[in-house]
Design goal:
By secondary structure, the chain is α/β, with parallel strands linked by helices. The chain contains four helices and nine strands. Strands 1, 2, 3, 4, 5, 6, 7, 8 and 9 form a nine-stranded mixed sheet that branches. A hairpin with a 6-residue loop joins strand 6 (105-117) and strand 7. The protein starts with 24 loop residues before the first strand and ends with a helix.
């Protein structure tokens, strides 16, 4: 997923190409969780001195009828802003940070979305709002014969050439997501952990 605006109201499926995910390999499985990774064999961390961080993408609009209090634009903004700050702190500590592209500067793009996966392999065919994953778990509904899941994706690219250096995907089943997340605050806390893991996987730290 290429870097785009922080809260996206447009359909983000323009950013998805299932064939792009064929490069990912399953590296870890836990109850309700799968972690996938791709590392460019030519990527060396020592070749880069800093990382430029794009605002995180949350595919979720405000909803009045979700949960006890719903999801407001303010809540989405607060979660995204807090996660942006923590993500930059992580990058500054692990790599060094840059605010513009340049030589020996990598670019980090992250996104949290709902996703419908095709078949048993990890081939995303449709992105859906995060709330769709919660609703599907509660109602036991499918989309196109598959139950949506939560996808946390991190991509590390060369900031000048755009060459993909690494990619990490943290995939959470709808049942696991609903079981663990019962409030916006809990989502924020868990999502920060998931993003940290995805970044670590994408950069080869895990």
């Amino acid at each position: 997923m290429v870097a785009c605006a922080g809260i996206t109201q447009q359909d983000p499926n323009e950013y998805i190409n299932a064939a792009d995910y064929d490069r990912l390999k399953l590296v870890s499985t836990q109850p309700g969780v799968k972690i996938y990774r791709y590392l460019n064999p030519e990527f060396k961390r020592s070749d880069y001195r800093a990382v430029m961080v794009d605002p995180i993408v949350l595919y979720q609009a405000a909803e009045k009828d979700l949960g006890k209090t719903g999801i407001s634009e303010e809540t989405i903004y607060r979660i995204r802003n807090t996660m942006d700050i923590s993500m930059r702190q992580l990058v500054r500590k692990q790599f060094g940070i840059s605010y513009k592209p340049g030589q020996r500067v990598a670019r980090l793009s992250t996104a949290i979305t709902g996703v419908v996966v095709e078949g048993g392999a990890f081939r995303p065919k449709q992105l859906v709002p995060i709330s769709t994953v919660l609703k599907a778990a509660g109602k036991g509904t499918n989309i196109g014969g598959s139950q949506p899941q939560l996808m946390v994706e991190a991509k590390l690219l060369d900031s000048v050439s755009g060459k993909l250096l690494g990619e990490g995907v943290y995939l959470v089943s709808s049942e696991q997501f609903r079981r663990e997340v019962d409030s916006p605050e809990k989502f924020q806390a868990l999502a920060s952990q998931w993003v940290k893991t995805a970044i670590g996987v994408a950069s080869g730290l895990r």
